Structures are given as C-alpha cells and as structure tokens.
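Appendix C reproduces, verbatim, an entry submitted by the partner laboratory led by Prof. M.T., so that reviewers can inspect both the input and the predicted structure.
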Amino acid sequence: MKDAKEIVKEKYGQIAGQNLLGNNSSCCGPSCCGDGANYANFSESYKNLEGYDPEADLGLGCGIPTEFAMIKKGDIVVDLGSGAGNDCFVARALTGEKGRVIGIDMTEPMIEKARNNVKKLGYSNVEFRLGDIENIPIESDIADVIISNCVLNLVPDKEKAFSEIFRILKPGGHLSVSDVVLRGELPEKIKQAAEMYAGCVSGAIEIGEYLQRMNDAGLNNLLVQKEKVINIPDEIILKYLNPLELADFRKSNTGIYSITVYAEKPIR
C-alpha cells in the first residue's frame, strides 16, 4: 500500500471538487471507494441543524460530534480534519459570535473549499489552517472543545495525534470525536487495501486500543456517547477477499462501528 497520508491526500483532494450528491469516493461518505455501493448508515443528516451549510457538507462523517460536544457560547472550538467546513459551521452556531472556531485539514483543496465557504458566509470568527493532526499548527492550551468526524482513523500515528490533542486542549477542556473502530480484527488483505484505508475502514483500530491510546495521552473521564454498527456489503468485501475468506470473516464476528467518544484534559 502507498504511504497512508498520500492516499488520503489524493482521495480527499478529489472529493473536495465534488458535492454531497456527487461524492462517490469515500466509505465515510454516502458511498464507498468509487463503486456506487450505498452505505446508508455511515454518514448522518445535518439538514435540521443550525449553522448547516449544504455546500460544506460532503457527506464524509460517521457521526455528528457537535451533538454531544457541550459547546458553550464563547468557546474556542478546534475541528480536526475539517474538510469543507461542515462541522465548523455547526460549531460556530453553538459558540456564537463571541466564540472562535479553527478547522485543521492537511488537504489543500479542502482548505481552499472551506475558506471559500467561510468567505461566502461572511463569518469573521471561523478560520481554516493547513496542517497535520500529528503536528497541529495551534498553540498549547487553547481549545475549550475539540471535535473531529471520521478522521482520526486515517492518521497513521494515533499516539502522536492524541498527544497533540492533549497539548492544545485547555486544562479542563474536552473533546467529542466521531470515528470508526473495530471489535475484532480485519483480514490482512483488507488492512492493506488503499481504497479501504481512504474509506476509513482499514485504518480503524480495536475500540479498546482506541480508548487506551486516549487514556495514555493523559485524557480522562472517557465516555462512549454513541455507537452504531457499520454494515459493509459482501460485494464490497469480495473486492479484496475470495468467497471462502469472506465466509471466514463473517464467522469471525469482527464488527465495524462508528462511535462518538467524550474525554477531558484534567485540570492541573
């Protein structure tokens, strides 16, 4: 498999030129890996949320992290992997004009799209920065709330990512992230599939390990706020496994889930 970051940049750079209806390139979105197979329960609808901007919604999420993020008026919110700005604009409606929202994304076309969207909306307290989640371009102890939506599974060095999250959170600050995790283990052929990596599946790790890495970074009071099963159709799996391997995979009871997780940075 090619370098994981290059795979993500390439795929999500392509997606930046599409809209919600046209996005056929991501398993995090309404369809997977460019083949048109529908994943009805991957992304969720934002249409009734205040701050929602259809042009910023590329259907790339696996949850709605702002739903449980307890964002208050005046908060500084950081969105990791902000894409075209969808979650940032919903967060901005919650934090209000006195708050501040910073979106971080490593894909230049996404940053350009997000900046065009914020310019169109006329918001002065939402900004987008090109940067890597393993080296977040934000000073320490600044964020009241961190959100992220179906992105951390794409980061190769998750230990470093959670360390950076801890660094930029204020003492007493918290995160609410939606992501894809496993119960069990994926077959090696799926782990090595570039399309399944870009689609938020093969980069996912076991839920216990995911939570442990958050804890190891210093975050505490972890709580899984929401969990749902992601059902990947057999026709998708058969792109990578033969029928006997598929049968063994189904018998293994390996589960793929989207979760939303809360955690806090302790007050010193």
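The chain has one domain: 4-264. Additional entries are available on request from the coordinating office.
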